[in-house]
Design goal:
CATH class of the largest domain in chain A: Alpha Beta
Number of strands of chain A: 20
Helix content of chain B: 10-25%
Strand order of the largest sheet of chain B: 6-7-8-3-9-10
Mean pLDDT of chain A: 91
Order of helices and strands of chain A: EEEHEEEHHHEHEHEEHHEEEHEEEEEEE
CATH topology of the largest domain in chain B: Rossmann fold
Structural class of chain B: alpha+beta
Distance between the termini of chain B: 15 Å
Strand order of the largest sheet of chain A: 6-7-8-3-9-10
Bound molecules: adenosine-5'-triphosphate, magnesium ion
Number of helices of chain A: 9
Number of domains of chain A: 2
Structural class of chain A: alpha+beta
Number of strands of chain B: 20
CATH topology of the largest domain in chain A: Rossmann fold
Largest sheet of chain B: 6 strands, mixed
Number of domains of chain B: 2
Largest interface: A-B, 56 and 57 residues
Shape of chain B: globular
Radius of gyration of chain B: 24 Å
CATH class of the largest domain in chain B: Alpha Beta
Oligomer: heterodimer
Chain lengths: 370, 389
């Protein structure tokens, strides 16, 4: 097993002035699964490909343990890769594809059979062991690719979107199994994914990237509860966090939320974070599941209208527009299937204890020391 | 199954005005296709109204892409016909069907820029009026999909998700008789997916032509479809509104596909003891709730599969009256909810979605509480939801 360290790594592609990865300093610990997560085009795959040796490092160094690897070919790195486009040998069967890395390394026949049977069983491929891979569905091909990576017991496994073409229960099952395997065998691994559910379920820590720049790296729980800045707050969590402009109201820790025309009291413990704000302006973050919604009644007057509803099985995801706010939508999640439909007038409210506070200019979380 | 597939949508599903006379819905009748010994599609019958969005979901290999390719004319069905309105189209060449298809594999022209790729169908002979402001349309679409800054790049210099959006833009700028989107947003992050699901759905709703949105993600299907068709092993398992599919899955296959995590499915049998109907398997005895008794009555001693919705069950202290004993197998905290895996008699794993933030320790003894609303019963042999005969 090994550790992986990116030491001031940069990536620029030839013929492009865009910086795909900028001054990346990041370490993956021994036996850890580290996820690289971020929007499309943020540099996740570029980072992984540099670790794999499929793309050159433009500047900086990558270390496996103490060993600099940026000049080594992929074959010299003892890594296994699972990429989204499977990369299988199209003319070989499932079994042949999985045994291939063992055969070229001259494992005994018995050992090969044992390991390959284990992988076939684990990945639910037993019934198709002797089928050619070309006729298989994308999902099945990806399971073959995962099997081929696992049988070798490599030092490091790099996953690029391994589950993106799998469906419902296979995805849920496979992510638990990959996690289980990775933990029990202590395989150091890096996972590139655009899917935060996948990252949360599988990774010990998640590195969030944006435009080639690392934003925050921490456990899924910390990213969710204490996002370092507006970008992470808005990116982690589905649907994304609501970000609303607000104004400090008086010296008592009150904040006036523009879109709702309502002032909330933050309490003494938190009001110290509200000093030094330019013109007393700030951004307030509220997760969709923390916005309360009710049918208007005696206690709560209607203050918004439902613009759109998405049924999500056990949850309804709503978009509501507060009265008198132009162009501001608030996303709400509630247990589903619920009874609100577009056009309904509703009463929505925020609880101060669930609000996140950000600086308008730096976009940093006001309650986290830089 | 065939009956379900043939029954058209429920009356409340389509409320949009019907379109002009030249617009027509799409209907498929008895579409069957085999590749060698594999039956990719088996008697698929469905209809999509003008202006309606049908979401088609199913596991990988279920036949989604084959269906897509048959409608587009890239593959020929062995049997069955397709019609736009009253007019049969399944004998027409692909170029004459006016079908816009977004491929799962993107299929971009490598020698053209992003902008030219998106423009290409508008310029094709037989495409819409050449005099229109196509550049404006294209740039507006690229902007919506957040790739306008990439307009002059070539596809080889794009990331995976960027390529997918170029392919999507190329499909959306067209004005076809039917729009087919094969996994249009699978490669994007949750935030962009959330945005595009809503934006694209609202655009498609304004059209007077039908659209089909194919996705392996069951929840995405619930979110974007006026109705949802679930397909498995080439057969339509259920067509219904998102609520129907979620609350009343017609088969084990449907239940297994929808939700994160999907419904827990546990095999066992029905027994009657002291006049009470019980679901029984090793380590587990569960009295059936009143609403399941009428259907269970016909399956006494028969093999059934119990469905427990992950959000319908909860973990409580061991020994609680009316619960099933077991232990905590794993625990995944997701921020707004946790997923706890509960192990019964060391062999059945039940996933529970809970908003209760208490700590769960792996290996701890606990008990499973199963309220009536979260339960369903299926016939293990046929996989169908138990119904009155
Ligand atoms: N071969 C290439 N030549 C030029 N630019 C490239 C090349 N490959 C990627 N890029 C650019 O580098 C940036 C980072 O791309 P990368 O593939 O690392 O993104 P990603 O985070 O994996 O995105 P996705 O989730 O869409 O796959 C993007 O702006 C992309 O357009
Ligand atoms: Mg990528």
């Amino acid at each position: 097993m090994t550790t992986v360290r990116f030491d001031s790594v940069w990536k620029r592609y030839d013929g492009s002035d865009l910086v795909a990865v900028q001054d990346l300093n990041l370490a993956c610990r021994e036996g850890e699964m580290l996820a690289l997560l971020g929007p499309s085009g943020c540099g996740k795959s570029s980072t992984l490909k540099m670790a794999a040796g499929l793309e050159q490092v433009s500047e900086g160094e990558i270390l496996f343990g103490d060993r600099p690897v940026s000049r080594l070919s992929p074959g010299e790195r003892n890594i296994a890769m699972v990429f989204e486009d499977y990369g299988l040998y199209p003319r070989l069967t499932v079994r042949q594809n999985i045994s291939f890395p063992l055969e070229v390394r001259h494992f005994t026949k018995d050992e090969i059979k044992k390991r390959v049977d284990g992988a076939l069983e684990l990945l639910g491929l037993k019934d198709m062991a002797d089928a050619g891979v070309q006729g298989l569905s994308g999902g099945a091909q990806q399971r073959v690719a995962i099997g081929r990576a696992l049988v070798r017991d490599p030092e490091l496994i790099l996953f690029d979107e391994p589950l993106s073409h799998l469906d419902g229960d296979q995805k849920v099952m496979l992510r638990t199994e990959i996690k289980h395997l990775q933990k029990t065998r202590g395989i150091t691994s890096i996972l590139v994914t655009h899917d935060q559910t996948e990252a949360t379920a599988m990774a010990d820590r998640i590195a969030v990237m944006r435009h080639g720049v690392l934003q925050q790296v921490d456990t899924p729980d910390v990213l969710y509860r204490r996002p370092a800045n507006v970008f992470v707050a808005n990116f982690i969590g589905e649907p994304p966090m609501n970000l609303l402009t607000a104004q400090v109201a008086g010296s008592t820790g009150g904040i006036h939320i523009d879109a709702l025309g309502e002032t909330l009291a933050l309490g003494d413990a938190r009001k110290r974070h509200l000093t030094n704000l330019r013109h007393g302006r700030l951004i307030v973050g509220a997760r969709p599941e923390h916005v309360a919604i009710m049918a208007p009644g005696a206690v709560s007057q209607a203050n918004a209208i439902v613009a759109y509803r998405e049924p999500r099985g056990d949850t309804d995801s709503l978009v509501v527009t507060p009265f008198g706010s132009s162009g501001i939508d608030i996303r709400i999640e509630m247990p589903g299937p619920g009874s609100f439909r577009s056009g309904d007038k509703v009463a929505i409210s925020l609880a101060p204890e669930n609000l996140h506070l950000f600086d308008t200019e730096t976009e940093r979380n006001l309650e986290i020391e830089p | 199954m065939t009956m379900l597939a043939r029954s058209r949508h429920t009356p409340e599903a389509v409320t949009r005005p019907a379109a002009g006379c030249e617009a027509g819905g799409l209907s498929l009748a008895g579409i069957t296709k085999s590749f060698g010994a594999i039956k990719a599609l088996d008697d698929v019958t469905l209809a999509v109204e003008p202006g309606e969005i049908l979401a088609v979901t199913g596991p990988s290999g279920a036949g989604k892409s084959t269906l897509c390719r048959i409608i587009a004319g890239l593959e020929r069905q062995d049997q069955g016909v397709g019609r736009f309105g009253a007019e049969e189209f399944t004998h027409l060449a692909p170029g004459r069907r006016r079908v816009a298809l977004m491929f799962e594999s993107y299929a971009l022209y490598p020698h053209m820029s992003v902008r030219e790729n998106v423009l290409s169908p508008l310029r094709a002979p037989g495409g819409p009026d050449r005099q229109l402001d196509h550049d404006g349309t294209v740039m507006e679409m690229l902007k919506l999909l957040e790739i306008d800054q990439l307009a002059d790049r070539s596809p080889s210099a794009l990331s995976g998700g960027q390529k997918q959006r170029v392919a999507l833009a190329r499909a959306l700028v067209q004005d076809p008789r039917i729009l087919l989107l094969d996994e249009p947003i699978s490669h994007l992050d949750a935030k962009l997916r959330h945005k595009l699901r809503g934006e694209i759905r609202r655009r498609l709703m304004r059209r007077s032509t039908p659209s089909i949105w194919f996705t392996p993600d069951g929840l995405e299907a619930l979110s974007v479809g006026d109705r949802v068709a679930v397909i498995d092993e080439g057969r339509i398992e259920q067509i219904g509104t998102p609520e129907d599919i979620w609350l009343r899955p017609a088969t084990v296959g449907v239940a297994r596909l929808i939700g994160d995590p999907p419904m827990n499915l546990i095999k066992g049998h029905v027994e009657v003891k002291d006049g009470r109907f019980l679901f029984i398997r090793r380590g587990m005895t569960l009295p059936l709730p009143p609403h399941l008794v009428p259907v269970a009555r016909h399956k006494v001693e028969g093999r059934v599969t119990l469905g427990l919705r992950a959000d319908g069950v909860s973990v409580v202290a061991p020994g609680t009256e009316g619960t099933i004993p077991g232990e905590i197998y794993s625990h995944e905290p997701f921020g707004k909810h946790d997923i706890v895996t509960f192990s019964i008699a060391g062999e059945v794993r039940v996933k529970i979605k809970t908003r209760d933030q208490s700590s769960f320790r792996i290996g701890d003894a606990a008990a499973l509480l199963c309220p009536a609303e979260g339960m369903a019963l299926f016939d293990t042999e046929t996989g169908k939801a138990l119904a009155l005969p």
